[in-house]
Design a protein that fits this description.
Elements (H helix, E strand, L loop, with lengths): L2 E3 L2 E4 L3 H8 L6 E4 L14 E3 H6 L7 E4 L1 E5 L4 E5 L5 E4 L1 H11 L3 E3 L2 E9 L2 E8 L3 E7 L1 E4 L6 H5 L9 E10 L7 E5 L7 E7 L4 E10 L6 H10 L2 H5 L8 E8 L8 E2 L2 E3 L15 H17 L2 H30 L3 H13 L2 H9 L4 H27 L3
Parallel strand pairs: 1-12, 2-3, 2-13, 3-9, 6-15, 13-20
Antiparallel strand pairs: 4-8, 5-8, 6-7, 10-11, 11-12, 14-17, 14-18, 15-16, 16-17, 19-20
The structure holds flavin-adenine dinucleotide.
Length: about 400
């Protein structure tokens, strides 16, 4: 079998893998990507935030600005004016191609990583390219940027594919009578154990999607989409019906964040390291940022630089993701009635605080407020139980 030597093998040409490659200097690398092209098929909805995309230097022609977010339950609606801190919807294919244009690796599309084994000097990985068959890559380090597949870690027995994940389906279609700076999130009967969304793009289309957490629910996203389309919810939310649509679909892990990112010379980043937010499953800005930081750490060629990257990533994500994952687990059990009550609470929150929940950015003030509320509720339940046991005096 043909063997090619390189310094670093990157597995996965999504935002995480491409961003690692974009910041590698002085290192030779190969990136293998199982899809035929970068950025297609689309497996994500592209929702993000203006302040993040500006910080990451993403050009404005790659996103649509959103300054109004409507949140719906089955009977309620909360309108959030977010013009002060707008959201964006990214042109996913355009963004991935832009990232690929900055990548320093030798990129091989239609090339699937199959397995790897440790050898004296590093790793010998077997890949298969469509039309060319199997070949091997000898590298000193491997980056697992394969998303929820976690394929490298699994191949080496270092970790496993997530047992809990979120799957989503999205219909993208052209619209003429929709306010293109308005996005929608909806919760309740039509997206139980998950949520739905309507995102406008800069291509004159909207992305109408529903996602569900498995195994919290065994509902199929396609059936959920059909039920939504058979209902009058789209009219209620002011969303045009799809005539001619294109389907996007994808999976993300929905498990607790784990702090081990570096396994010697095998390092994971992006969804293979559970880096999408537990609240809404938003991963693009985080995968790009952490991918770039990892690329810079790899360029330093010292184990210390990698440990520092791991420590800083954990410092940024671990606590917030722990809280977010509690929210995720509770929301996965919510009934339609729970969502009505939740919307009632959302109505009272200032828009910036609600967005902080959606962004999974929990400040100490929010944490203390939440914990006090829980303690107060628990105390109230105890008093109620005591009154129930002893009877009114
Ligand atoms: C339905 C849905 C909607 C989402 N919406 C949003 C959103 O609105 N905003 C947001 O910020 N995030 C969103 N996300 C999350 C976001 O898409 C992910 O967090 C992000 O794409 C993760 O990037 P990644 O590079 O780690 O993994 P991926 O994007 O999954 O990329 C990994 C790549 O590796 C390739 N690969 C896998 N196995 C192999 C192999 N054996 N060999 C070679 N290549 C391989 C895959 O084909 C894939 O293209 C959404 C996710 C889903 C599923």
């Amino acid at each position: 079998m043909r063997v090619v030597d390189t310094d670093i093998l990157i597995v996965g040409g999504g935002p995480a893998g491409l961003s690692v490659s974009g910041r590698l200097t002085g290192r030779q690398s190969i990136l293998v990507h199982q899809d035929r092209e970068i950025g297609l098929p689309v497996r994500t909805s592209g929702g993000s935030w203006l302040k993040d995309v500006q910080r990451l230097g993403i050009p404005p022609d790659l996103y649509q600005l959103v300054d109004r977010l409507d949140v719906f339950s089955d009977t309620r609606q909360v309108v959030c004016d977010i013009a002060d801190a707008p959201a964006v919807v990214l042109d996913v294919t355009g963004l991935y191609r832009w990232l690929a244009a900055q990548a320093s690796s030798d990129i091989h599309c239609a090339t699937k990583f199959l397995r790897t084994e440790q050898t004296g000097e590093g790793y010998l990985s077997t890949v298969r390219t469509v039309g060319q068959g199997e070949w091997q890559i000898r590298s000193r380090q491997i980056i697992d940027a394969s998303g929820w597949h976690c394929i490298v870690l699994e191949s080496l027995g270092l970790n496993r594919k997530p047992e809990r994940d979120a799957v989503g389906i999205e219909y993208e279609y052209p619209v003429t009578d929709f306010q293109m700076d308005r996005a929608i999130l909806f919760f309740g009967a039509f997206a139980l154990s998950g949520y739905g969304w309507v995102f406008p793009t800069n291509k004159g289309t909207v992305r109408l999607g529903v996602g569900v957490i498995r195994p919290a629910s065994d509902a199929s996203p396609r059936d959920m989409m059909n039920a939504l389309l058979a209902s009058d919810q789209l009219e209620r939310m002011g969303v045009p019906r799809p005539q001619d649509h294109h389907v996007n679909a994808g999976t993300i892990p929905s498990v607790a964040y784990e702090k081990q990112l570096v396994y010697g010379d095998v390092i994971r980043v992006g969804d293979s390291a559970n880096m999408a937010t537990p609240t809404l499953g938003e991963g693009l800005r985080i995968c790009i940022e952490q991918g770039r930081l990892l690329g810079e750490a790899l360029s330093e060629q010292t184990p210390k630089a990698l440990q520092l990257w791991q420590r800083q990533a954990n410092g940024k994500l671990a606590l917030n993701y722990k809280i977010g994952f509690w929210v995720n687990q509770a929301a996965a059990r919510y009934t339609a009635q729970n969502w009505e009550r939740s919307l009632k609470r959302m109505e009272k929150l200032p828009a910036h605080e609600l967005m902080a929940y959606f962004r999974n950015d929990f400040s100490w003030g929010m944490i203390i407020q939440r914990v006090s509320l829980l303690i107060w509720r628990k105390g109230l339940d105890k008093v109620r139980a005591m009154c129930g046991q002893q009877g009114p005096t």
